[in-house]
Amino acid sequence: MRLGYIAKRCVVFKIHKTVFKIYKIHVSTLCTAFRVIKGAQCVKGFTTGSSELDKLIGEIPPRTMLLIVGHPGSGKTTLASQICYANAVRGHKCLYMTFYEDREKLFRNMGRLKINLAEVENKGFLTYVKLPVASAEELMDIVAKLVASDHYNVVVIDSINPALELVEREESKRAIVLNFFYQLVDIIDGLLVAVAEMPIGKETLEYGSIEFVADLILYLKHRITRGLRSRILEVRKVRGAPSSVIEVPFAILNDAGFKVYLPPRPERMMRGREHAISTTISFITKLAGPIYKGDTIDISFPPHAREALTIVPLVDIAVTNNLKALLISYKYSPDEVKELFIEVFGSYFNLGKDVVLSILNRHFTIESFNPASYALTHLYAVEVELIEDLKPDMVVHHGTEIFSAVADPSEYWTLLISMLTWLKNNGKLVIRYSARISPQWTRINEILADIVVRVYYKREGGALKPVFYIWRRGRTPLLFDFTNEDITQAALEASETSRPY
Q: What CATH fold (topology level) applies to the domain 3-260?
């Protein structure tokens, strides 16, 4: 530690003469804290308690002031408590000072989020203090004495609004309060977490001057869309890093506390045609050409006639190549999806229920989400996390037309393009099923695909027969008119893949 530097900061000040004596007392008390930490071990860095957030902002070095700004109920106290707890678990003593939060209530609420403040308090790594409502001078004196009482690596002030409101119209005193926070960071030689509340309807802090003092600024915001709350974390400032604005979704979860999601946003398409995928159904290769890992296949059909045979190649590819598939339906429950597979393979291929379920259990993980119950950024982040956890070879989206009714088109396409690029770069085969309910929606989906399959129907002999329009990137489109012989041949070929089951 630069002890000479800290000592010098304790005595060299040019302050307005009317408040010099008061401020000198606080500086003297902080210098006592300097003497307490003189023999302490140097601190390397701090965590937010969220690996994703740490990845976004980098490790927090000593002598950092972190400013957490947000609307009422946005999660400021949760994040501050998680930072305090996560660092206390790592052996850093935390001083948590608050004006509003009752100890029992705070500990109980955080305990539900697996932030066990009582545990670290019992071990001597947390000191909780409820601050009184007092003058700015008295508050600075109280804080200085508390900091000087022990070697704290992390100090939390929840929130700084009362102190700044007290000196709102007195610029000289306000400057002293801000400078006090600035000096406090150096004295503790650790992490100072300051919580600030901004009015509902605004996305800036009224006391903007505090932002000049802070090294790291996080804004917690929530927006209401379709009656759903979307939580957004904005990294507004990271000292020493580019000042580009970064927004990511987050959630407050019972089993994970303050959870930040880092949806992938790849800047380039990295992969080409590296690994071809086999199929036992001959007409697929004949019409669509070879299928590669990283391809996106878009399959669409009329909303009133959803061709069941389109799921047959999906199963054949998974079984033939021994692939793991994640199937996400936006319309049906997992049980309904399984019933669909059982019905199709029973009707066309005479496979028993047990055989079909055995195939599904071995090769498929089936999930379902209701897009109307999620903010789009949150749903996107949840799916990415699911894919990262399961690491499937194939990702299947079923019922994607639902988004045309519930999602903002610009936001949806932005997220989808990033998703498909990320999946392609990771060599995932993507198959997307949708009903054609909007020409523009269908065309944009097809633009993003490597293989396009459109199912139509024609009347023949008093019955409707499926006709397939198939296009593969780099090839001429083809029309394929299914006959009973074609279906029989496909059934024979596909049934070969079920022999091991």
A: Rossmann fold (3.40.50)
Q: Which residues contact 250 (CB under 8 A, 6 or more apart)?
A: 75, 220, 231, 232, 233, 258, 259, 260, 261
CA 313, 315, 320, 324 torsion: positive or negative?
A: positive
Cα distances (Å, whole numbers) of residue 251 to 51, 255, 376: 14, 11, 13
E-state strands within 31-125: 64-70, 94-98
Every domain of the chain with CATH number 3.40.50.300 lies at 3-260, 276-496
How does pLDDT run along the chain (501 residues), one tens digit per residue?
Answer: 434 334 333 433 333 333 334 344 444 454 444 444 434 445 568 999 999 999 989 889 999 999 999 988 899 999 999 999 999 999 999 999 998 889 999 999 999 999 999 999 999 999 999 998 787 788 888 999 999 999 999 999 998 888 777 665 666 656 777 788 888 888 888 999 999 998 877 777 766 678 888 999 999 988 777 667 788 999 999 987 665 558 889 999 888 899 999 888 777 777 655 688 888 877 777 777 789 999 999 999 999 887 778 888 899 899 999 999 999 999 999 999 999 999 988 887 788 999 999 999 999 999 999 999 888 888 998 999 999 999 999 999 999 999 999 999 999 999 999 999 999 999 999 999 999 999 999 999 999 999 999 999 888 888 888 888 999 988 889 888 866 566 556 655 555 665 566
Q: Which two tokens stand for residue 444?
A: 């944009």
Query: Is residue 47 a contact partner of residue 60, using CB atoms and an 8 Å limit?
Result: yes
* Helix or strand (DSSP H, E) at 246: strand 246-253
Q: Which residues pair with 176 in a beta bridge?
A: none
Among 426, 428, 370, 438, residue whose Cα is nearest residue 401: 438
Q: Contact, 330 vs 403, CB < 8 A?
A: yes
The domain 276-496: what is its CATH number? 3.40.50.300
96 φ, ψ (degrees, to nearest 5) = -110, 110
Quick check: pTM over 0.90?
no
> Which residue, 442, 148, 94, is CA-closest to 302?
442
